[in-house]
Amino acid sequence: MTETFYESVGGRETFRGIVARFYEGVADDDVLRPMYPEMDLEPAADRLAMFLEQYWGGPTTYSEQRGHPRLRMRHAPYHVNPDARDRWLAHMKVAVQEAGLAPLHEAQLWDYLERAAHSLINTFEDTP
Ligand code: HEM
């Protein structure tokens, strides 16, 4: 039996911890915070955590609740320019580093997040 990445890094607790720390950064971010449609960031945090858990081999609750991820399509309503991407990644960097994963796991997770964030850029305009 081989362990999934999800299991190797500590499962649900690890992903929930990273996402909670990430949203603390978002809550204080003048550019990102206004993008989130809901007053409460908790539901958005839950969606991101479910997505990451599923991506890395954990429970498939994300797709059961939300269907196919279609991340580019789901980000289309938001102004994702290089500044937004850099801010997103900066909050995520703090969150991932604080999780204290083994260096190879951290590198693997980070590589994915960086590539995913680059791929979601949908504008080079400064303002919406
Ligand atoms: C590049 C900068 C990014 C920005 C500015 C951004 C912004 C947003 C915003 C405003 C939402 C809507 C919040 C909600 O109601 O769920 C959202 C949703 C979401 N984002 Fe991002 N995001 C970024 C990158 C990423 C990346 C890299 C991933 C995955 C690795 C990701 C995964 C998701 C997921 C799974 C959702 C919920 C989709 C759904 O089921 O509705 N985002 N994002």
Structure overview:
The chain is mostly helical and 128 residues long. It has one domain: Orthogonal Bundle (Globin-like), CATH 1.10.490. 63% of the residues lie in helices and 0% in strands. The protein is built from 7 helices and no strands. The chain is globular, with a radius of gyration of 14 Å. 16% of the residues are buried. The model has no long low-confidence stretch (mean pLDDT 97). The structure holds protoporphyrin IX containing FE. The site of protoporphyrin IX containing FE has 22 residues, from helix 3, helix 5, helix 6 and helix 7.
Keywords:
single chain; 128 residues; mainly alpha; Globin-like; binds protoporphyrin IX containing FE
Helix share, percent: 55-70%
Helix/sheet category? mainly alpha
The arrangement of helices and strands along the chain is HHHHHHH
- What is the number of beta strands? 0
Q: Report the uncertain regions.
A: none
Using the alpha-carbon principal axes, give the shape: globular
Task: Offer a quick outline of the entry.
By secondary structure, this protein is an all-alpha fold. 63% of the residues lie in helices and 0% in strands.
Give the helices and strands, then pairings:
Blueprint: H1 5-8, H2 11-27, H3 42-55, H4 61-66, H5 71-75, H6 82-99, H7 103-119
Helix pairs in contact: 2-3, 2-6, 6-7
The structure holds protoporphyrin IX containing FE.
The site of protoporphyrin IX containing FE (HEM) has 22 residues, from helix 3, helix 5, helix 6 and helix 7.
